[in-house]
TrEMBL record:
Keywords linked to the UniProt accession: DNA-directed RNA polymerase, Transcription
Region entry Disordered, spans: 1-76
Ranges of compositional bias, category Low complexity: 45-69
SUPFAM superfamilies per record: Sigma3 and sigma4 domains of RNA polymerase sigma factors (SSF88659)
UniProt KW Chloroplast keyword: no
Pro residues bias spans: 35-44
GO cellular component, one term: DNA-directed RNA polymerase complex
Protein name: DNA-directed RNA polymerase specialized sigma24 family protein
Length: 254
């Protein structure tokens, strides 16, 4: 019996039936030894402490939720703010004039609305001139919310003898009382004797003149203006005190 030569990549024939058993061949890939995978590079201390994935060799960006985050988002935000700022300032000033709101509060509210979005990329890309509609709608919505908050707000201090006062009513009342006090003081100044009416009227001028200007206007020396002012104020104080004391509790003069 002739010895059989072993065929590479085949199993040896069975020893029991050497004539009938045919060699069984396998594909070369099944026989060739498997190439081991390259070892994984060790993690850096920064990656070990933060737990962030390593950067991809092809793109250089980390895989996972942090992909896409970087300086591009900051540049987009800055460019968007530069585009919106002039439009927002103009719209807030126009809306605040008619609604009684502070323009700075409206601007801040619109910026907060913009920051509440998941990302700046959610806003559609459009030229600078096409942002007017979006900014106008946001400013109007913020002004509407501001007016609603003002109606709901109630001051802590209550009006004597009544319920909580409305802020607008309190402001109008203060302005009316202040105007009435100014009218009474000016009427009392006109009743003062001598140079007191002209001296005190000049000092109560909205232009706020200096002593030198008042002395030149009235034709008196600057050094004597201070003593004259003191005497006139004392006379005015006594006159107003007498008028207040003359009023009865029911507001009638005796």
């Amino acid at each position: 019996m002739e010895p059989r030569t072993a065929v590479p990549g085949c199993l040896a024939p069975s020893a029991v039936s050497p004539r009938t058993a045919a060699p069984v061949c396998l594909p070369p890939s099944r026989v060739s030894p498997r190439t081991p995978a390259p070892p994984r590079p060790p993690r850096t201390p920064a990656e070990a402490s933060t737990g962030s994935p390593a950067a991809s060799p092809s793109t250089g960006s980390p895989a996972g939720p942090a992909a896409g985050a970087g300086p591009e988002g900051g540049r987009e935000s800055e460019q968007l703010m530069e585009v919106l700022r002039p439009l927002l300032v103009a719209e807030a000033a126009a809306e605040a004039h008619g609604s009684g709101c502070d323009p700075a509060d409206l601007e801040q509210g619109v910026w907060l609305r913009l920051l509440e979005r998941p990302s700046v990329g959610d806003l559609p890309a459009r030229p600078a001139g096409c942002w007017a509609g979006w900014v106008r709608a946001a400013v109007r919505a913020e002004a509407k919310d501001a007016r609603r908050r003002v109606r709901r707000e109630v001051p802590y201090d209550a009006v004597e003898g009544g319920g909580p006062a409305h802020p607008a009513a309190l402001g109008t009342e203060r302005m009316t009382l202040a105007a009435d006090e100014v009218r009474r003081v000016r009427a009392a100044v006109r009743r003062l004797p001598g140079r007191c009416p002209s001296v005190l009227s000049a000092m109560m001028s909205p232009q706020d003149p200096t002593y030198r200007e008042i002395a030149g206007e009235l034709g008196i020396s600057q050094g004597s203006l201070g003593p004259v002012r003191s005497r006139c104020l004392g006379c005015l104080r006594r006159m107003l005190t007498a008028e207040v004391a003359a009023l009865e509790p029911w507001g009638m003069e005796r």
